């Protein structure tokens, strides 16, 4: 009996010791990891910014400048954007049509050694600038459908929709991506990756983002809308044509042509809606490969707006104002017509022209549409490809 008593006593003493150690460890863990919630500051850039609290199912509009708390979700409509400034000086630009939840935003309650930001991107597009760390431990994590991304100091673009998740590292930074059951993947500056909603992913890519669909016309005119611009009643009986044909090396090309116009105006065009935020790209390049074969109307016509080939980009600047960039191409101007927005090119020669759109004043923040056209009297021109690439 005495032996049993000692066993019970020592067992009780051991359990008490373990409980004491566990209690001290728990207190230590809480001391190190306890977070004090910190707010974010929101600024609306056009349109309306909506917010929803964790205990409310309804969305309400926010003033143009306001504070956001941990647990709240924000949503932009089809025309609005917003800028969030986090407590650690990191910034988030929220594009239109985006829903983002501020799941966790806090700093160490006792030690001041940790900053934690955890976001959930349900849909849409955000651009995050992660500020340099001011504490030993900085954590910024974004959850997207099918994956989670850990971000170090740097610049990033993230996109979420029902079918995919996407992250791209800007000119600096590194991102660790965990998608589905795949092994963690680290992205370096200039790299990007996307994955399906179920977590299936490919390897990192470094090529520029192409914003135009079917810009090489490999699928004919799929993705493009064909249209006409008459301008005057005269000439309506002599239409221009848009024809998919074959280039000198067997590649598809699109031919604009019009004949027997009798000196009347007509225009034909290919149009594609882009509607993409491009504010985070360091470069944005419009590239055309084409040739101009014939034009009966000199230069750019009487108003400097009629060219045998032209390209038009409609975009929105940072202040929300809409702008249009147009450049046309011609090979002769025997009657000295206006060529306000034109460039002279050789006749019947394939060439590639590259236009850096980030140098425009003001520079584009959102590309709305791209149009390739031909207009004037009689004309013939061909385009092999049109590209709008951001990086």
Outline the structure in words.
The chain has 391 residues and is mostly beta strands. It folds into two domains: 36-206, Jelly Rolls (Sandwich); 225-390, Sandwich (Jelly Rolls). The protein contains one helix and 29 strands. The protein has one helix at 2-33; strands spanning 35-37, 40-45, 49-52, 60-61, 65-68, 73-76, 81-85, 91-94, 99-108, 114-130, 137-144, 147-151, 154-160, 164-169, 175-179, 185-187, 192-196, 209-210, 225-229, 241-246, 252-258, 266-277, 284-295, 309-316, 322-330, 342-344, 351-356, 366-376, 379-390. It has a 17-stranded mixed β-sheet that branches. Strands 18, 20, 21, 23, 27 and 29 form a six-stranded antiparallel β-sheet that branches. It is elongated and about 120 Å long.
Write a short abstract of this structure.
This protein has 391 residues and is mainly β.
Can you count the beta strands?
29
CA radius of gyration is: 29 Å
Strand fraction equals: over 45%
Distance between the termini: 81 Å
How many domain modules?
Answer: 2
What does the secondary structure layout of this molecule look like, with pairings?
Elements: H1 2-33, E1 35-37, E2 40-45, E3 49-52, E4 60-61, E5 65-68, E6 73-76, E7 81-85, E8 91-94, E9 99-108, E10 114-130, E11 137-144, E12 147-151, E13 154-160, E14 164-169, E15 175-179, E16 185-187, E17 192-196, E18 209-210, E19 225-229, E20 241-246, E21 252-258, E22 266-277, E23 284-295, E24 309-316, E25 322-330, E26 342-344, E27 351-356, E28 366-376, E29 379-390
């Amino acid at each position: 009996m005495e032996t049993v008593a000692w066993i019970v006593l020592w067992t009780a003493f051991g359990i008490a010791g373990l409980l004491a150690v566990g209690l001290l460890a728990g207190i230590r863990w809480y001391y190190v990891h306890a977070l004090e919630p910190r707010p974010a500051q929101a600024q609306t850039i056009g349109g309306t910014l909506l917010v929803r609290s964790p205990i409310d199912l309804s969305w309400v509009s926010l003033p143009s400048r306001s504070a956001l708390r941990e647990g709240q979700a924000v949503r932009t409509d089809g025309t609005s954007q917003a800028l969030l400034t986090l407590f650690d000086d990191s910034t988030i630009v929220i594009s239109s049509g985006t829903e983002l939840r501020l799941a966790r935003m806090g700093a160490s309650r006792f030690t001041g050694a940790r900053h934690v930001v955890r976001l959930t991107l349900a849909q849409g597009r955000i651009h995050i600038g992660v500020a340099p760390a001011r504490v030993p431990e900085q954590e910024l994590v974004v959850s997207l459908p099918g994956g989670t991304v850990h971000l170090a100091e740097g610049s990033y673009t993230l996109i979420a929709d029902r079918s995919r998740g996407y992250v791209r590292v800007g000119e600096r930074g590194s991102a660790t991506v965990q998608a589905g059951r795949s092994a963690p993947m680290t992205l370096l500056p200039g790299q990007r990756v996307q994955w399906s909603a179920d977590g299936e992913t490919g390897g990192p890519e470094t090529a520029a983002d192409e914003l135009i669909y079917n810009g090489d016309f490999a699928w004919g005119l799929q993705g493009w809308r064909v249209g006409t611009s008459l301008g005057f009643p005269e000439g309506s009986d002599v239409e221009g044509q848009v024809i998919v044909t074959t280039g000198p090396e067997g590649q598809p090309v699109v031919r604009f042509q019009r004949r027997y116009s009798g000196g009347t105006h007509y225009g034909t065009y290919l149009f594609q809606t882009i509607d993409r935020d491009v504010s985070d790209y360091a470069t944005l390049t419009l590239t055309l490969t084409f040739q101009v074969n014939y034009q009966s109307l000199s230069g750019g016509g009487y108003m400097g707006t009629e060219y045998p080939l032209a390209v038009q980009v409609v975009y929105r600047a940072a202040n929300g104002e809409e702008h249009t960039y147009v450049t046309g191409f011609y090979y002769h101007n025997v009657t000295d017509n206006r060529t306000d927005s034109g460039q002279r090119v050789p006749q019947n020669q394939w060439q590639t022209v590259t236009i850096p759109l980030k140098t425009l004043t003001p520079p584009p923040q959102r590309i709305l549409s791209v149009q390739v056209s031909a207009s004037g009297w009689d004309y013939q021109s061909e385009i092999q490809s049109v590209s709008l690439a951001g990086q």
